[in-house]
TrEMBL record:
GO molecular function, one term: peptidyl-prolyl cis-trans isomerase activity
PROSITE patterns, per the entry: CSA_PPIASE_2 (PS50072)
Alphabetical UniProt keywords: Isomerase, Rotamase, Signal
Enzyme class (EC, first level): isomerase
Protein name: peptidylprolyl isomerase
The keyword tRNA processing belongs to this UniProt entry's keyword annotation: no
Organism (species): Brumicola blandensis
Signal sequence bounds: 1-40
Gene3D superfamilies for this protein: Cyclophilin-like
InterPro entries: Cyclophilin-like_dom_sf (IPR029000), Cyclophilin-type_PPIase_dom (IPR002130), E_coli_cyclophilin_A-like (IPR044665)
Length: 311
């Protein structure tokens, strides 16, 4: 047998195997590169989403309440108090609040509105089970900012709402910051029906986990602050109905004609704009401040503030 033929054949097979291995290696490198590019793209997209500076509030979660002092827009929190939101929106849809008033207004505390006479008929004002807090799920949207807090293990935000969390009980709730909207009740925790209140003074945080907070004012807080006050010795109740601030109408945002909707935006809590504000609150890095504090922040003050979108 020709040894040169055998040698040449072996060399040819080796060359073929080398080319095959090279092609396989290149294919693997290409696949790895594609996979890496895909993962990098996902990370980049996630990073862009995380650093998204602003968000637009959905009209589906807004209530437009026109008062004799001006328009108020309330953002609803069905993620924390779904049954209260459901009943409140049902009452709004049937026009229950139209023509009612804010009959109990205590300066520096709350403005309470609804049907003081309890004579207005409704198919949606039955007593509600309390929704003071919810179980903190592993994938909770809670974004921690301050720990510890005077009234909670941690405070932070859930979907733009100031919130607290109990790390041992694994529960979370919305805070009684200025502008918080909650259902009024008697001593019975499960007695809330239709009357509600808006926090208008310093945050009465002792009410946290004792009342069902289901929303927050995101527009027109200056109109709420303009409501007629009652006397403290009367518990803030305004006996003369003609002196009360009136609710002219209440409507769901999604039912308002688009050209009449108020487009509201706010910084996202993970975005650069809000993170810079938080950092400024922690460091007080400004020549105006001579005492720099201790690095703690009050989430009722350092919160994502809404603004009307610019055209």
């Amino acid at each position: 047998m020709n040894t040169n033929y055998i040698l040449n054949s072996r060399l040819q097979r080796s060359a073929l195997n080398l080319r095959a291995a090279t092609f396989a290696g290149l294919a693997l490198l290409s696949l790895c590169a594609t996979s890496f590019h895909s993962q990098a793209t996902q990370v980049a997209n996630k990073s862009q989403e995380t650093n998204k500076a602003q968000e637009t509030l959905s009209q589906d979660n807004l209530i437009y309440m026109l008062t004799d002092k001006g328009m108020i827009v309330i953002e609803l929190a069905d993620f924390i108090a779904p049954n209260h939101v459901k009943q409140f929106t049902a009452l709004v849809e049937e026009g229950f609040y139209d023509g009612l008033d804010f009959y109990r207004v205590i300066d520096g505390f709350v403005a309470q509105g609804g049907d003081l006479s309890e004579k207005k008929a409704s198919a949606h004002n039955g007593p509600l089970q309390a929704e003071f807090s919810r179980i903190s799920e592993p994938k909770s949207e809670f974004y921690p900012v301050q720990s510890p807090d005077l009234y909670a293990d941690e405070t932070g935000f859930i979907k733009g709402f100031p919130a607290g969390r109990d790390t041992e009980a694994k529960t979370e709730w919305l805070l009684h910051c200025p502008g918080a909207v909650a259902m009024a009740r008697t001593n019975d925790a499960n007695s809330g029906t239709s009357d509600f209140y808006i926090v208008i003074g310093q945050a009465p945080r002792q009410l946290d986990r004792n009342m069902s907070v289901f929303g927050q004012v995101v527009y027109g807080m200056e109109h709420v602050q303009a409501f007629s006050r009652g006397k403290r010795e009367d518990g803030g109740q305004i006996s003369d109905a003609s002196q009360r601030s009136k609710i002219i109408s209440a409507r769901l945002g999604k039912t308002i004609p688009k050209q009449e909707q108020i487009v509201l935006t706010r910084p996202t809590v993970r975005g650069d704009i809000f993170q810079q504000r938080l950092e400024g609150g922690r460091t007080l890095d400004n020549p105006f401040f001579h005492h720099k504090g201790n690095g703690n922040v009050d989430v009722c003050y350092y919160r994502p503030m809404t603004s009307v979108a610019q055209n």
